[in-house]
Amino acid sequence: MTGLSQHRADVAAAASDAERHPKGLESGLSPAEFKLAFRHHAAGVAVVTADAGDGPVGITVSSLFSVSAEPPLMVFSISNSSSSAPTVQRAETLVVHLLGSRHLSIARLCSTAGVDRFADTSIWRRLPTGEPHFPDVPVWIRGRVINRMEAGNSTVIAIHALESQLADDPTTTPLVYHNRTWHALGDASRLND
């Protein structure tokens, strides 16, 4: 290959790589390596519900985290390939449900593809403001979307917390997702200093 031919091949390869990876993200872990690494990271489980005018949607997320108490802000991400993504991305308000282990059925329901998550009208209802929610979940937060950011094949959504239902139930054990498995945290998982 001549010097000019090699240069053209290098330019074409760089252009192809730039199309696949945003600026500054030309190299990194493979998707398989990244997923394997995060299998070691336990995360709380939440369900996000919304309705942008075309019917309710719900999605299970483990990417939720608080950002600020003043003002009360939280963030989560959603895959753009999720069937719930178009509605969640258009909704002005939504409800975040913080799940305990006894709500595993709701977590599974909202993480299962191809099902009508709101077919059983006995497990959900609408708040007075119109958002769908699961009233059996003792802790939920209704919030207004204040920012969206595209990140790879996902969207990061920031929410300002507006109102909540907060139950102080000492029998509720948190639902956690770790290494592709659901877990309940309880006294047996407590580590003493």
Q: Can you offer a commentary on this structure?
A:
The termini are far apart. The radius of gyration is 20 Å and the shape is globular. The chain has a single domain, classed as Electron Transport, Fmn-binding Protein, Chain A (Pnp Oxidase, Chain A), CATH 2.30.110. It is of the alpha+beta class and about 190 residues long. The protein is built from 4 helices and 12 strands; from the N terminus they run ααβββββαβαββββββ. A 7-stranded antiparallel sheet has the order 3-2-6-9-10-5-4.
Which descriptors apply to this entry?
193 residues, 20% helix, 3-stranded antiparallel sheet, alpha+beta, single chain, Pnp Oxidase, Chain A
Task: Tell me the fraction of residues in β-strands, as a range.
Answer: 25-35%
Cα-to-Cα separation, first versus last residue: 64 Å
**What is CATH's topology name?**
Pnp Oxidase, Chain A
Which CATH class applies here? Mainly Beta
Spatial order of strands in the largest sheet: 3-2-6-9-10-5-4
Order of helix and strand elements from N to C terminus: HHEEEEEHEHEEEEEE
Shape by Cα distribution: globular
How are the secondary structure elements laid out?
Elements: H1 3-20, H2 31-38, E1 43-44, E2 46-50, E3 57-61, E4 65-68, E5 73-79, H3 85-90, E6 93-98, H4 104-109, E7 125-126, E8 132-133, E9 140-151, E10 154-165, E11 175-178, E12 181-184
Antiparallel strand pairs: 1-11, 2-3, 2-6, 4-5, 5-10, 6-9, 7-8, 9-10, 11-12
